[in-house]
Amino acid sequence: MSFPYRRPLHWILLLTILLPLGTMSGCGRSESRKQAPEAAAPGKEGEKVVLGDMIEPFTPPSLEELEKEVVWLDSPVVDAMEELRKVKESEPALVSVEEALKMRNDSPEANKKILSALSVLAPPDGQGVNYDAQINRSFPMDLVTTNPILYSSVSESELLSLTSFGLFGFDWEMIPFASADSVVSWQTSEDRMYDKVVMRKDLVWSDGKPITAHDVVFSFKAIMTSQVPVPAVRTGTDELKWIEAYDDYTLVFFHKNAEATNVWNLNFPILPKHVYDKSLLEDPTLTTSEYHANIEKNPVAGGPYELASWSRGQEVVVRRRESYYMNDGEQVRNKPYFKLVRFRVIEDANTRLLALKSARIDESELEAEQWQTQTAGNDFYRNNTKVSGPGWTYFYIGWNLDTPYFSDVRVRRAMAHAMNYDEMINDLCFGLHSRCAGMFHPDSWMYPENPPKFIEYNLDKAEDLLDEAGWADSDGDGIRDKEINGRVVPFEFTLMVSQKPDRIAICNLLRENLESIGITCNVQPIEAAVFQQRVHEKKFQAEMAGWGTGTDPYTNENIFATGEERNYGSYSNPKVDELFKAGMKEFDSEKRAEIYGEIFNIIYEDQPYLFLYNRNFFYGFNKGLRGYRFSPRGPFTYSPGFSSIWMP
Amino acid sequence: MIHYLVRRMLLALLTLALITFLAYGLIRAMPGDPLLLKMQAMNPGEEMRLEDVERMREMFGLNDDWYVAYFKWLGNLLRGDLGNSLSQHASVASLIGQRIGPTLLLTMSSLFLSYLLAIPLGLYATARNGKFDERFISTTLYMLYSLPSFVAALALQVMFAIKLNGTAFELPLFGMTSDNFDQMSFGGKFVDLFRHSILPVTCFTYGTLAFYSRFIRANMQETIRQDYIRTARAKGAGPKRVLFHHAFRNTLIPLVTMIGLELPVLLSGSVILEQIFSWPGMGNLFFESIRQRDYPTIMGLLLVFSVLTLIGQLLADILYAIVDPRVSYH
Q1: Are A20 and B31 an interchain contact pair (Cβ–Cβ within 8 Å)?
Q2: Which of A94, A382, A466, A572 is deepest in the core (most CB within 10 A)?
Q3: Distance between CA A40 and CA A35 in Å, rounded?
Q4: Does A239 touch chain B (CB under 8 A)?
Q5: Which DSSP string corresponds to A593-608?
C-alpha cells in the first residue's frame, strides 16, 4: 500500500516503519520531571567531585605581603554608556531623526546618514525614554541553557549579555575595561603578574543576596572543575594561577605569566555561589539533578534583566530587574530602558523577515540577499528601517598543506590568481561585502600599515605558477598532473563547503575558473557535523568557511601557529610562531600592532588560506528604536551594545 | 484472541530490542561528533580545548564502543530513564514531554479533519463519477496533492498574516500562543490556540486530505464494479443505499488499516512546517537532534516512534478483525 510520503521525516522513519510490531509505554508528560537517579548522569558514579581540581595548589600571600612587594598601576574602570555619550557628541547627526526615518537606505551615504541620526542616545536623565516599552527580538535557534558557564551558542550569549553578571567588558572597538557598574577600582601590577579589583558594595543577585568577591572565586573554581562540562569559558580562565578574595569585595587575580593578553583571562561569567556551592558537588553536570533542572528554568540573575519565562522552542522573556539599578531606595546604576525583552525562537529566515515586516519583532539580522531584494519596498519601510556596518568576520578557502597539491606555496598562489574576485563580490555578494587580504579587518588596530597588494585575478599567472611547481598536463588529457613518488597524480581535489547556497556559489565560481586551467575541483556541500569532523581529523583537501573575530588578535595563534588546534590545514611558519609569542609579551600597543601586522603580511605571502571577503552586518530595526551602533561583532554584544538602545 | 495478543506482544518486545539495537549502531556509525560541533562557534576567542573535548567525551560515554553504549542505554531505559540530552541541558524525557502536546494538537486535528472531509468528498466523487463537478474536485485535489506544503505555508503567511494584517481575517504568522496567553480566560486561550493552529493545520491537512479522498474514490470505484453491488441494485436498492450500505462498508477496511499506520506519523510531526511556523513540535526536535548528533535524544524519539508503529500495526490488525468478519485470530 502506498502512503503519503509528503513529510521528509518519514524517510528517516523508514527503518522503524518497515519492521513489525509491539507495545510498551512511551514517555509522556508524566515523566518529564523525573530525574536520572544515577547512571545516565555524566560523571562517574561514586567519583568524588573536588571543586577546582584543575587548579595547581597555591598558597597566596597575605594582602599586606603583596602590597609590600607589588607596585600597582591604575587600569581603566569605565562607564561604557558615558564613554559612548562622549563619542556621540563629536559625531553630529547628518540628518534629523524624522528625515532619517523617511529615507531609503540605498547607498553608503544614505546608510551613514540614517545611522548618524538613529544612533542618537537617550539623555542621561532618561527624559523622553518610554520605560514601559517592550522589545521583541528573535533567536535563530532555541536556547540551550541559562547557565552562564555552560553556554556555547549565539542565542545564549545574547541572553547572557542581559542576565549575567561580570566584572569586565569591552567597547565598540573591543577595548577591554573594568565595568564601572560593578567595579570601584582596578589595578594591575607593574610586572603584570597581578590584577587587583575592588568590587562595588551595592551589587545584589536577583534573589536579594549580595554579589561578592566569593562568588567570583567560586565561579573560577567551578569553571576549573574537571567534572563540570564547560564548553567555552574554560579557555583563558585556565591561564589564571589563582584568584583570592581578601575580603567580601577585594579580589586579586594571580597570573601564570606576564602577558599582554592577561586582561582577557579576567573576563569570565560569574555564578551565584550560594546557589551552586553544595549542588555542584552532588551533580557536577549542573544539568541532571532536579535541583539543577529547576535552576535552569529559574536562574538567579546578576545582570540588568532576569528571566521571566522560557518555553523551549518558542520564546524566552526577560524583565527589567529593579534590584539591579535600585539599592536602598536609591538609583545606583542606569535604569535599563526596556521593561520586557522577548526573544522569539524563529528558525526560518523567511518567517523572521515577515515577522519584522509586520512588526512582530523589532529587529532582525538580514542576509545580504534579503537586504538587496526583499527589503526595498513599502512593505518593509512601513514599520522599519535598515542599516549596515562593517563586520570583522572573514571567509576563506583553506588548503590542506599535507596534501601533495597544496604543500607548494606556488600552487596556493596560483589558486589565488585563479579566483575571479570581481565576479564574487559584485555578482555573488551583491557588491555588499568587500574583498579581504587576511584575518584582520582594515579598520582594526592590528591591520598592517603597509598591507600587501591584492593578488590579482590572472589565469596566465596562475598557469605559469602551476607549470613552475611541476603541475603540467603530461598526458594531454586536459588535466594537469605531476609525478609524485613514481606515480602520476592528476590535479583533482575536493572542496568542502557547508550547505549554504551563497557559499556553494562562490566555490562553484572557483571550480569554473580552475577548470579552464586544467584543474578539477569537486565542490562538495556537506553537513556541519561531518564538516567539523573532517577538518578536525585533517581528512580534507580544501574547505570553505569563515571565522568571526576574537576580541584580541592573539586568538589567531590557535588558527595559524604550528600544530595548533584549529590549524586544520597544518600550516607552519616558524617566523609566524615566533611573532605570535612576541605579540603576547609586548605591552606597547603600537609595537604590538606592528607584530600582528607583520604576521598578517607573512600569512598573505604564504597563502595557507585563499582569503575571500569580509562580511558586513545588515540589520532591520523597527522605526521606534534609537541608539543602535555597530561593533566589529554586530550591534548587540559589546558594552553598551543593547543597553544603549531605547524607545522614545 | 488473547493468546494471539500475548504472542504478538512478546514478538513486539523482541522487535523493539532489535530496532533500537540496529538504530543505535546506525546512529553511532554516522560521521560527525556532538562535541566537535560545539567547537564550530564562529568566534575564534571561544575555542574549546581538545583536553576538554576528550574529558567530556569520557563523561558522556562517547568513548565506549557503540554496543557497550547501547546496553548501558538499554539498562537505563529499563529503569525508566531515557538519559540526558547532549545538546540541550535537559533530560530527554522532559524534552519529548514538552513537544508531544503541540505535535498532537497539530496532527490530531489534521487527521480528524482529513477523515471528516475525505469521506464525504470521496463518496461524492464516486456518486458523481465523470460529471463536471467530479472532474473539478478530482483535479483540484490532485493539484493540492502535488503542491509542496512549504510553498503553501509561505503563501498563506503572506496572505493572512501580512496582507490581511489589521483586518478581522488576520491570522498569527507563527508560534502557538499569543504573548498574553497566560492572562487569558479559558475560552480566550482556546480561541488563541485555535487561531494559531489554523494555518499550520491547513498546510498539514490538505495533502493528506487529497490523498485520502482519492484513495476512497479509487477504492469505491473498484467496489461498485463488484457482483454483489449489481445484485444489490438488481434487487431494487436505491443508489444511496447501495453507496453507503453496500459499497462504503467494504471500502472502510483498508481505511481502518491506514488509521493504524497513521499513529507514528501523529507523533513525528513535520520538520519543515514546524520550522516555518515556529511550532515547538517533535519533528523539529528530531531533526535538530540528528543535526547535533544528540544520540540520547535521537534514541528517545526513535523509541517513541517505534513503539507507536508497533502499536499502530497491532491496532490495525485488531480493527481488521472487527470490521471484516472473514478475519479472525485463533
Answers
A1: no
A2: A466
A3: 10
A4: no
A5: HHHHHHHHHHHHHH-S
Q: Which residues of A touch B76 (CB under 8 A)?
A: 36, 39-40
Inspect the interface and report whether the beta carbons of A39 and B81 lie closer than 8 Å: yes
**Length reported for chain A:** 648
Which of B31, B60, B268 is opposite residue A13, by nearest beta carbon? Answer: B268
Question: In Å, how far is A495's CA from the nearest CA of chain B?
Answer: 18
Q: Do B15 and A20 touch (CB under 8 A)?
A: yes
pLDDT, one tens digit per residue, over A121-177 is 999 999 999 999 999 999 988 888 999 998 878 888 899 999 999 999 999 999 999
With 0.90 as the threshold, say if the pTM is over it.
Answer: no
Burial of A611 (0-12, 13-18, 19+ CB in 10 A): buried
Residue A233: closest C-alpha in chain B: B46
- Residue listed under C-alpha cell 493504524: B260
Q: Which residue has the cell 495533502?
A: B207
- DSSP summary character for residue A105: -
Q: Pick from B40, B156, B262, B273 the residue to mutate for testing the A interface (most A CBs within 10 Å).
A: B40
Q: CB-based contacts of B254: which residues, under 8 Å, 6+ apart?
A: A1, B215, B219
Q: With beta carbons less than 8 A apart as the criterion, state whether B97 and A31 touch.
A: yes
Q: With CA atoms as reference, report the closest residue to A183 among A388, A333, A336, A375.
A: A333
The length of chain B in residues reads 330
Other C-beta atoms closer than 10 Å to the C-beta of B116 total: 12
Termini Cα distance of chain A: 63
Q: Is B310 in Cβ contact with A27 (below 8 Å)?
A: no
Distance of alpha carbon A309 from alpha carbon B177, whole angstroms: 14
**CB proximity A393 to B under 8 Å:** yes
Per the structure block, which three cell numbers stand in for A223?
569553571
Contacts of A543 (CB under 8 A, 6+ apart): A397, A398, A400, A495, A496, A497, A531, A534, A535, A568
d(CA A159, CA A146): 8
B1-18: pLDDT as tens digits:
788 888 888 999 999 999
CB atoms within 10 A of CB A453: 8
Per residue in A583-634, pLDDT (tens digit) is 999 999 999 999 999 999 999 999 999 999 999 999 999 999 999 999 998 9
- Would you report the helix, strand and coil content of chain B in percent, each value rounded to 5? 75, 0, 25
Element (H, E) at A417: helix A409-417
Is the CB of A232 less than 8 angstroms away from the CB of B47?
yes
ipTM of model: 0.85
In chain A, residues 219-238 whose CB comes closer than 8 Å to chain B = 226-227, 229-235, 238
CB burial class (10 A; 0-12, 13-18, 19+) of residue A362? buried
Do the chains contact at A533 and B179, CB–CB below 8 Å?
A: no
User: Do the strands A176-179 and A77-78 form a parallel or antiparallel pair, or are they unpaired?
Assistant: parallel
